[in-house]
Write a structure and sequence with these properties.
Chain A has 403 residues and is an alpha/beta fold. Chain A has 14 helices and 18 strands. Chain A has three domains: 145 residues, NAD(P)-binding Rossmann-like Domain (Rossmann fold); 159 residues, Dihydrodipicolinate Reductase, domain 2 (2-Layer Sandwich), CATH 3.30.360; 67 residues, Alpha-Beta Plaits.
Chain lengths: 403, 403
């Protein structure tokens, strides 16, 4: 029998307890041993919950309980989660976490401690919720060199963009609806400004490159500037607009960005709707593959945490291969990256001026919108910003999905 | 250093050698040791290939070479692959194979031998080519009870159906084109009659249930009866037609079938085009997830084989948890399964007769096709066949994708 302590009894933590208690038989079969929740750490009491008898308010009760072999961390945030996780790993206990802030900031250090102590620090649930992603990247694609990762990694913004696309709604109205449904928070910046997706692509890029990618280094744009007219243009271009988190290798340099992107209708990411997440990966041997599923929610995320718990039981005292050193990865400058750009300008900018600055472009028009809009030829980001600065009068720009 | 022998130097076998030799550094990093191809078994010689010096014609040369730790089997078929693989496992050597016939027929036995000998029999490449599928099902979803698997598991037929859908071509013309492109074989029955997809869903269902699913027990229909008119009806219904291999659990009984299915436009499998494969999985906790990628081809399939080789090196002397006993799974009778049916009948069958037999139906008409066509309400397969037998004059039937 394996005893687990769950830190944090919020949405994910209570989901983990529910999964472990609902699928108890199949989990025992997979793990080779029964897995029991022995302690739950939370400041609150839950008098109506049959698991309330397991709740403790002081981490010492867990730290000093020698029967506990695995710690599940679902508190979120850095403090005190970081201290608790580090303590557990130093005691040789494996830790499974859903906490992307913790992983993005301290992943390299915590992996190193786990390796030293011959236990595991696993975080499948920190990116893409229930979608198997970190383990497949790490083990199923270990014959490949991963050259690109492009993901819809935030369900809230994908829900909002889907609504804007399909119902022609304005950003503010969709945000309000998402808040009412509980998909978006009262302070929605982490989602709508792309910060959440940014932490997730930082984690994936660290795993793929084996080096520390600091999320602060990743160019991040959110969707708050996207409006209903953008979607009318997108339709005219046979595209959808998706908030993509992406990193890719070119000439042995890695680049990364989070931004709204025009995705063509025949791309697999085009049809990812609502709160679903998807991650598209390109390996030098396997080619294009994609993983799709619920990127958030109690049970899907808890399912991923539990898969890490089972892995920890099965591989007791076997450290998983996770290559993520604390050596910092220097990302390449986006100014050198090539792509095509969809640009909206004031209607009084002449085509002559545009073509003088941007070279050959393809114009797009939508009935009732009095602007000049066009898609550039392939050019570098640097050249785009220079041309846009020269002409001025830019209403908006959205990058086209590159090939 | 780990020495590998590759059995069969055809498309997949030479792909495995290429992947191992191209990504040698990253593979060594992932495996923790350098992996070297020491021997290749093939009846032929390859004088223009730098690896020709590794080629042997007699399996004894591999069997008796004590430096070989891992055997890769890419010969296909049952004999002599089965004998070679069994011998290797009994010697305690791990085996990675891409051979779906072998896995479908002898998987349970070979897994049992590997367990006894503390080595591994791994077959990620046998289903879905390069798509990480078997390992995620087995380890990432180990907290879930898998309730349904629905896959586009055959790239050839998906390519043909995509062409028929997008270009309005007839079955025979598309088959000819697929043969010219090398996607379909001269004797294409294994693909177009669904036999290939059937073996693959048998393997996945065996893994999920832990019992032996004999592919002969799975009701299998191919696509040779699908014609251009069916696609015109599909468009009218806002559907695509896909050859789906599916197994699902209802009231603790497993059912399985391979058949062309009308898939609604908002289902994730609708947008899987060309030779791509995708597998949609429903777990009781994680909900719906999907895996997508190239289901065939030299390098994608070889990438999957190599991931098994790396796993074998990393987990040397640790047997993977694969639950697949030789106990036979009794599949439920499809007659009891419920669904909706799209039916085409001679134009002189009256609506009165149809509604008398089928109850409430929704009629579909397409300009220029003089038939009566309709979609039934939800009914069992048994009730459908009874009604269809009573009315007669059925031109064609395609199942609708169930919810």
């Amino acid at each position: 029998m394996i005893n687990v302590a769950v830190l944090g009894y919020g949405t994910i933590g209570s989901g983990v307890v529910k999964v472990l208690q609902t699928n108890v038989e199949s989990i025992a079969r997979n793990a080779g041993e029964e897995i029991v929740v022995k302690r739950i750490l939370d400041l609150r009491d839950f008098p109506d919950d049959p698991n309330n008898k397991l709740v403790v308010h002081d981490y010492k009760m867990i730290e000093e309980d020698e029967d506990i072999q695995i710690v599940v961390e679902c508190m979120g945030g850095i403090r005190p989660a970081y201290t608790f996780v580090k303590t557990a790993l130093e005691q040789g206990r494996s830790v499974a976490t859903s906490n992307k802030e913790l992983v993005a900031k301290h992943g390299a250090e915590l992996i190193a401690i786990a390796r030293e102590k011959n236990c595991n620090f696993l975080f499948e649930a920190s990116v893409g919720g229930g979608i198997p992603l970190i383990r497949p990247l790490n083990s199923s694609l270990c014959g490949d060199v991963i050259e690109e990762i492009t993901g819809i990694l935030n369900g809230t913004t994908n829900y909002m963009l889907t609504k804007m696309n399909e119902e022609g709604l304005a950003f503010d109205d969709v945000l309000k609806e998402a808040q009412e449904k509980g998909y978006a928070e009262l302070h929605p910046e982490a989602d709508v400004e792309g910060y959440d997706a940014c932490r997730k692509i930082a984690i994936l890029t660290s795993l793929v490159t084996g080096k520390q990618v600091d999320f602060e280094d990743i160019h991040t744009e959110g969707i708050s500037q996207i409006n209903a007219d953008d979607f009318r243009y997108a339709k005219a271009l046979n595209c959808g607009i998706k908030l993509l988190a992406r990193s890719w290798k070119k000439d042995d340099v890695f680049y990364a960005m989070v931004a709204p992107i025009m995705v063509e209708h025949n791309h697999p990411l085009y049809s990812i709707r609502d709160v679903f997440n998807a991650v598209h990966v390109h390996g030098n041997m396997v080619g294009d593959i994609m993983f799709y599923g619920r990127g958030a929610g109690m049970l899907p995320t808890a399912s991923a945490v539990v898969s890490d718990v089972v892995e920890s039981v099965h591989d007791h005292n076997v450290n998983q291969r996770l290559f993520w050193s604390s050596e910092k990865l220097k990302l390449g400058s986006l100014a050198r990256c090539e792509g095509r750009f969809f640009v909206r300008m004031d209607k009084d900018v002449s085509k002559e001026v545009i073509e003088e600055a941007f070279g050959r472009v393809e114009y797009v028009s939508v009935e009732g919108i009095e602007e000049v809009a066009f898609v550039t030829d392939v050019m570098t980001e640097g050249a785009y910003y220079q041309a846009a600065g020269t002409v001025g009068h830019v209403i908006g720009m959205i990058r086209m999905n590159h090939k």
